[in-house]
């Protein structure tokens, strides 16, 4: 059944083109469509035959000299054959698909018998030869169609030899019929071959259209993903810039009073005071120094990151990240262990970016663990998949793990398993690791016993 034009409304162009291409290119679908046309032509022939045999006296002025009993019996056989073909077609099968030439032989014999019991070489049933060749040309190859023409020409020639001569014009009529049958066969086969070629070309064009459409949609998806990632990075950078301004402002406002207090404490220390007072002043001075050091760490972390690669000790960078992380509210009650590979030398990388990535991974580990749990940070010298020397930093925790269905999405922007997370931490870390540190971040494992990430960084960004 053909679909109405309205059935394609609202469907993507690629789906419509793909459906058309599949219909044209699939030999089974094309053969079933040809079989549907063949069934209609056969039923048309049966109905017209019955009318020609049984209503001939009303159509023509003079009665036709025919054998109605034999013709009706032959047409009944043809009707049964058409019925079987119809049932097979409705079930999606082609009758005698593996014995196609047998169909042509049976049709040549059937049409010849119809003509023999009707009016011989001048019987109207001789035009059924043309219908048979048309059906064969639609369904099969030109080679088989020409073979069918040969069988029909032989059938009609045998009909002329076996039929009694009715007039002197029978021989001429027979010759003209054979000539016309041959010309019509050539024309029909040529036209159907042209249509098949056009269908094949249409299939190729539709296939190219589908491919181009899929490529376009893939590019759109890639561009959309890149835009989302760029927006996520921009949001993170804006937040970090705002945090830097806030930290600088806090350091300035707190730094001035601290400097004044520190000066007063130093002045009091220079006076002759008793031991108890000196001890208390030294304690105050120590706490002031601690506050100043904390402010310096805060300002140092929040300043714009340097993009210049320098010789960096991975151990020092990790310790700096841990020194910042210890001010996080969830640090309390956690056990943080380090295991540094002594064979790792200083590497050429971007220090600020390395500290930021390690800090983010440590903060995630702190969020995932409860009090009393342990977090381990270790370093190893390894080879990458490209057989290049890299430094691998492992951050493992004893937390609750990441749900299995979420593990494939944790590096996507705006995806988070935290109740108050932004979904940008791991995404930004992987971007920094890939684009700035020449490495990557991978999830090593995550189960009920904890989670472990691996950060790999190039040992020399200049190479």
Automatic annotation (TrEMBL):
Domain Histidine kinase: 249-461
Reactions catalysed: ATP + protein L-histidine = ADP + protein N-phospho-L-histidine
UniProt cross-references to InterPro entries, sorted A to Z: HATPase_C_sf, HATPase_dom, His_kinase_dom, HisK_dim/P_dom, HisK_dim/P_sf, Sig_transdc_His_kin-like_C
SMART domains: HATPase_c, HisKA
Organism for this UniProt entry: Fuerstiella marisgermanici
Pfam families linked: HATPase_c, HisKA
Record protein name field: histidine kinase
Coiled coil: 188-233
Lineage of the species this protein comes from: Bacteria, Pseudomonadati, Planctomycetota, Planctomycetia, Planctomycetales
Keyword terms of this UniProt record: ATP-binding, Coiled coil, Kinase, Membrane, Nucleotide-binding, Phosphoprotein, Transferase, Transmembrane, Transmembrane helix, Two-component regulatory system
GO molecular function: ATP binding; phosphorelay sensor kinase activity
PROSITE patterns, sorted: HIS_KIN
Enzyme class: transferase
Transmembrane residue ranges: 99-117, 129-154, 174-195
EC number: 2.7.13.3
Keyword Repeat: no
């Amino acid at each position: 059944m053909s679909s109405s034009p309205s059935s394609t409304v609202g469907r993507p162009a690629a789906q419509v083109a793909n459906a058309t291409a599949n219909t044209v290119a699939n030999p089974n679908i094309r053969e079933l469509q040809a079989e549907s046309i063949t069934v209609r032509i056969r039923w048309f022939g049966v109905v017209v035959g019955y009318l020609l045999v049984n209503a001939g006296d009303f159509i023509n002025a003079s009665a036709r000299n025919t054998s109605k009993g034999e013709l009706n019996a032959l047409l009944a056989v043809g009707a049964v054959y058409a019925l079987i073909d119809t049932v097979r077609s409705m079930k999606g099968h082609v009758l005698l698909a593996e014995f196609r030439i047998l169909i042509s032989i049976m049709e040549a014999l059937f049409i010849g018998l119809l003509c023999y019991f009707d009016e011989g070489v001048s019987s109207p049933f001789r035009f059924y030869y043309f219908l048979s060749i048309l059906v064969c040309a639609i369904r099969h190859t030109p080679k088989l169609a020409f073979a069918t023409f040969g069988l029909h020409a032989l059938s009609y020639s045998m009909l002329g030899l076996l039929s009694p001569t009715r007039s002197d014009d029978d021989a001429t009529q027979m010759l003209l019929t054979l000539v016309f049958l041959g010309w019509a066969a050539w024309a029909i086969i040529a036209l159907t071959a042209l249509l098949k070629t056009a269908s094949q070309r249409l299939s190729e064009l539709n296939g190219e259209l589908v491919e181009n459409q899929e490529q376009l949609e893939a590019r759109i998806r890639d561009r959309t993903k890149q835009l989302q990632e760029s927006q996520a990075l921009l949001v993170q950078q804006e937040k970090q810039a705002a945090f830097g301004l806030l930290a600088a402002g806090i350091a300035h406002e707190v730094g001035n009073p601290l400097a004044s207090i520190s000066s007063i404490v130093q002045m009091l220390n220079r006076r002759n005071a008793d031991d108890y007072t000196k001890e208390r002043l030294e304690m105050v001075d120590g706490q002031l120094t601690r506050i100043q050091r904390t402010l310096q760490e805060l300002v140092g972390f929040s300043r714009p990151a340097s993009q210049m690669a320098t010789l960096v000790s991975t151990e020092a960078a990790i310790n700096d990240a841990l020194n910042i992380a210890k001010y996080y509210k969830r640090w309390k009650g956690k056990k943080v262990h380090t295991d540094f590979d002594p064979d790792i030398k200083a590497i050429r990388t971007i220090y600020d970016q390395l500290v930021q990535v390690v800090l983010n991974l440590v903060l995630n580990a702190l969020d995932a663990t409860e009090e009393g749990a342990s977090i381990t940070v270790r370093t190893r010298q390894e080879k990458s998949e490209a057989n290049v020397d890299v430094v691998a930093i492992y951050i493992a925790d004893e937390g609750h793990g990441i749900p299995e269905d979420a593990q494939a999405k944790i590096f996507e922007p705006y995806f988070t398993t935290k109740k108050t997370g932004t979904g940008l931490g791991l995404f930004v870390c992987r971007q920094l690791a890939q684009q700035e540190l020449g490495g990557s971040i991978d999830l090593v494992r995550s189960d009920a016993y904890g989670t472990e990430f691996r950060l790999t960084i190039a040992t020399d960004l200049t190479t």
